[in-house]
Amino acid sequence: MNAALVRPSTMVDMAAITAIYAHYVRNTTSTFELDPPAVEEMVRRRQFVLSLGLPYLVAEAEGRIVGFAYASQYRQRAAYRFTVEDSIYVAPDCSGRGIGRLLLTSLIIACDSTPARQMIAVIADTANLTSIALHARCGFRMVGTMEDVGYKFNRWVDTVLMQLPLCDPLE
Length: 171
Known about the structure:
The protein is an alpha+beta fold. The protein has helices at residues 14-27, 39-51, 99-112, 129-137, and strands spanning 5-8, 56-61, 64-73, 83-90, 118-124, 141-152, 155-165. β6 (141-152) and β7 form a beta hairpin. It is globular and about 40 Å long.
């Protein structure tokens, strides 16, 4: 596969994004959703992210979408307005090819030009070593583990919290 290009997502990308995400919903604990959302719901979620002035990116290689990443509000209360949470998903047949790192690095750079000051990774499942390692390679530090906060596939699942300081918009 040729190198992937990261760019802002468009409406045309939403079917591919939805299909990638559906794989993770159905087959992994990487997300705590139990039922894959429809394209219309994914479009609504994207529009909300963009309405906040936050990036929603895709990785494209050889004419197809091979991953996506976006930053969203960490929490809705006003005091959290300078903190974002990242989400990254790579097409299952493209994992291990550096696409996740390319997406996360691009997302961090894009968030540096927003008012965001901190980026939080809420990684579902302490066994998700790939995501934990990816975030660590991109400068995130481990800040905690919440035990047994999700229940999926007939088992309790932890979440790992990692944090990365961004450029400070108030300095």
